[in-house]
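Honest question from a wet-lab person: if I give you the sequences of every part of a complex, can you actually get the arrangement of the whole thing, not just the pieces? Trying it with mine:
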Amino acid sequence: MSTTGVNEKEHGFRKGPLSQLADFFDNRTGYRALIHEALFERVPGGARWRYVWGSTLVFAFMTQLITGLVLWSSYSAGAQSAWESVYYIQHEMAGGWLLRGIHHVMAQAMVVLLALHLMQVVIDGAYRAPREVNFWLGLVLMMLVLGMALTGYLLPWDQKGYWSTRVATNLASLVPIFGPSIQQLVVGGPDYGHHTLTRFFAIHAGFLPAALVTMLVVHLSLFRKHGLCARKPLAKPDAMFWPDQVLKDAVVCLVVMAVVLGVILWPALQAMLDGQPIITGSLGAELGAPADPSQPYAAARPEWYFLFLFQFLKVFEGMGATGEFFGAIVVPSLVMGVMFLMPIIGRWNLGHRLNIVFTCSLLAGVGLLTAMALHEDYCARWIDPVSLADVPALLEKTGGDKSKIAASFGNDASLIAAFEKRRKKWDAFRHSLAFLEASSQAKHDAERAIELAGRPERIPPAGALELVRRDALSQGPRLFAQHCGSCHAHVDPTASGADAQYAKASAANLFGFGGNAWIGGLLDPQQVAGPAYFGNTAHKDGDMVNFVTEDLTDRDVWTLEDIKAVEVAMSQEAGRADGLHRSDAQATVQLIEKGRSLIADTERCGACHAFRENGTALGTAPELNGWGSREWLVGIITDPTHERFYGASNDRMPSFGKTQEGSAPMLSREQIDLLADWLRGQWYRSGQAVP
Amino acid sequence: MAPSGKRRNHPTKTPVADVSKITGPHAGDAAGRRNFFVEAMALVCGGLATLTPVAAGVWMFLDPLRRRSEAATFLPVTELKSVPDDGVPRQFAVVTDRIDAWTGFAAEPIGAVYLRRKKGSDEVEALSATCPHAGCFVQIDPEEKCFRCPCHSSRFTVDGQMVAPSPSPRAMDGLACRVDNNGGVAVKWQNFYTGIAEKVAKP
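Yes, you can. This is the full assembly:
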């Protein structure tokens, strides 16, 4: 006998336990009536595709809520933990790339859906009485969504988010009277740091969503109160929201989701077709290098849907502070003001048309500005610099002097104007090239930071920025450019344009220093006095150059095998970390031993150079014990005038690490270590033990 | 959905008593005064209760307003010999101890300056690398021998003057710079508000 036997007996029909449970809850909550009210809304004229946009926005917001809450469960808002936790989500957690990717791409989809929803409401005149308040609520909702997009950009605390947010918060300071206070409140103090992140996170994940949910509830209940604003004339008989309109809504939501997934997975598909391995960490949302206030980031751009505002600031060039105030504050406020007035303007028919024209031209203007911004950044990809080659040539010749340029065109106004036009194009090309180079550098830096974060030792408590700052591969080129690059070249001799780089240098090319090829060039009579070695230095006519060009060419004294032996033995002293010294198959033990004895020989190299126990005094020529090793390089960078190195014959090289008369050295010990490691090719490589 | 005879049907709404009866035996002005008093007290009690967390929240939220940056002091940046007297600006990091809320950093790069020395001069000119337009990092364009902001394309001459037409409202921000007897170059590091014509230091 079933448990429902009593009911069966009393009523003559059988009621399942689930049904009973449903009855119990309906009895106490009245949920059936609620669901009925929610689903059985009359859709005048039947379900239509044009009514789906509101629902897709609710769907997009729900997606953001779900993905956002889970992201929250793994995110840590702090200057030394935000990038690190996002790195962990993106590159190490199962499915992190997908979740973050959906959150990132759906945010962009939401902006597009907002524009579509707004267009549909304006075109259908759905803001007219009695729906004015709901239209205003919609505008507020739009600003809340844009606010979430803006605040979300900073949260990974990478270079891109950091520098873009600096611009956005600096613009906030332009608001009259309260601007500076607003800026300080948003930033969380006078400087960017922990509290910028905690505040942006609280705004992004707390204040704005709470406000949005509240407004959304009112927006939806008002929508229900007024009923759907049907497009006249009604095409078909009325239908119910469920299931006709819900089906259409659901189909479009699915399409939106498919597009989002498509954007995330597109690179994976391409990799698959190319037969490349798929790296899931690189899919979905990007993660730049960790934010560094001291490291310029020339590729700082807002997310694409804010590019029009970014570009708008350039429109006002030449207008000074007024222009910026106009572009950043006045015009956007006026536009929002007009939109708020739309229900009033739209009361009479012409006004409604004006509203449509205004909205369309606004979107067109946004589109145009976005296109302009993209063109300015990427035009170097399609402008041919050769076709403009005369511009830099003339600028170089005249030194940019206007009257000289005019004179070169015989003061012909039309020719000068034509030149000015080409000069602008040349300028645009160079601006774009700089942006593209900065972008690729940024990509490079990001990849390196991610590679470092994946070391088996993990990220130190001081954060990933510390890792980057202590990385020879990241810092070496910068330190070299700043402190060494004005004299030394660092260019692969086999690369194109290497000669041009030597021409500018006044000291040796240090590319591959200590490797076989480098020593081979030093011992080559054709090269030793060339610009890659001593050619541009005071040692041009020195003992070493004489030795290589005269003694070494005497085959009775120096056989080719002898020279090879010295080269191999020297590269063994340097012991480059990247294995350049091992690139030579001839580097046998016998050959190395032979080379060492030749170097130590006081009739040969040992006549000037101290090596092993050959008894040659320091001070005449650099010591060759451990030549090119880390310790040796650190020593020569610290003080080349030391007797172990060039002593009194040092040619212009500063003693970078020497403390002089109580003042700090030009380079810290740590910086010198980084330079030495970089020059020797010693840095962490993933999948390899640190040598 | 017929409820069983034994089960009680739970009404969804409690019947509301007639409002006129609630006022009870009191009538006329006295009732009106009492009503006003009750309403006022309800608002005051409820308002005070709610205002407490709001006030405490606002109080803490406004805390950043009383935070000030470290007073601008001269920070050693480099040595005179690292600034060749060729009139070409060079970029240097400004390094100092920094406090970010609860974290203290020792010798941390906090920004960058451009230093420039004219031919034969021992005086060094310092310019902040922060663009006065919107705060991006201004960079040197070695080919055109000028400064160029990578964000909105503001351009400045090597001595920091605007190249018209420029989105920037003012020239690059000069910083006080001095060279001590040992050849150490120190710069008075300051941040300025961006986007306005006047150079106003941030508090």
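Two things worth pointing out. The two ends of chain B are 72 Å apart (CA to CA). Strands of chain B lie at 74-79, 90-100, 103-117, 124-128, 139-141, 146-148, 155-156, 174-175, 177-179, 184-188.
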